[in-house]
What we know:
The protein is of the alpha/beta class. Helices cover about 45% and strands about 25% of the residues. It has nine helices and seven strands, in the order αααβαβαββαβαααββ. The chain has a seven-stranded mixed beta sheet with strand order 3-2-1-4-5-7-6, sandwiched between helices. α3 crosses α4 and α7 runs antiparallel to α8 (about 175-195). The protein is globular, with a radius of gyration of 17 Å. The N and C termini lie far apart (about 35 Å). It binds S-adenosylmethionine.
Amino acid sequence: MDAIELFAPLGPTYDRYARLLSFxxxxxxxxxxxxxxxxxxxxxxxxVATGTAAVAIELVRRSxxxxxxxxxxxxxxxxxxxxxxxxxxxxxxxxxxxxxEQLPFADASFDGLTFTYLLRYVADPxxxxxxxSRVVRPGRTIAMLEFGVPPGPARLAWELYxxxxxxxxxxxxxxxxxxxxxxxGDSIRDFHRRYDLLELWRAAGIENVRLRRLSLGGGVVVWxxxx
Length: 227
Ligand SMILES: C[S@@+](CC[C@H](N)C(=O)[O-])C[C@H]1O[C@@H](n2cnc3c(N)ncnc32)[C@H](O)[C@@H]1O
């Protein structure tokens, strides 16, 4: 199933269940992601795969920057637009429909870029990273959040959760969340089997790449600077 179909029914319930299904860790991971961004009130940040705009809102609250949030799902953006309005941030956040693989922006037009849970959904992660990097000014920060596969003893608990707990919990919520619950474990495992995140980022020409595992490795934040 492609990502547009997967996310179309999730917008209105996304924030509540993303938090519940990640045992409340998801907002904490986003806050760490945003804390990596060296931006201030005069800067413009692009948040790709913005979905319901949670990262975009956190960016403005923390640093006062302006944010353009881009996503390919109109339905997720509709919920995002409501959240931005409720937060009184319409003047600081603009939401745009578009694809990460082909951004509708000129080279070096942003002072920073964030993206969340994106690379598992694109056909060529290295090419997409190059495209994201293209629109950032040289030297400025690019940061991402992704699910991880915990190493060591926590791996067993993680496998149990994604193989048994998540599909059952998803099915209880709705058909849309049942699809997410059944596909997420394989998607995360396959992605990390195929790609080493540090190598991937460096291959895309990003410098000073750093990685932090959060919540025993269930979340991973990577950040670096546009060369
Ligand atoms: C799991 S949601 C994350 C939303 C949000 N950033 C957050 O922190 O919760 C992933 C988002 O990526 C978007 N997405 C997936 N592939 C995309 C692509 N190629 N271009 C733009 N957005 C994409 C989906 O529409 C969805 O809104």
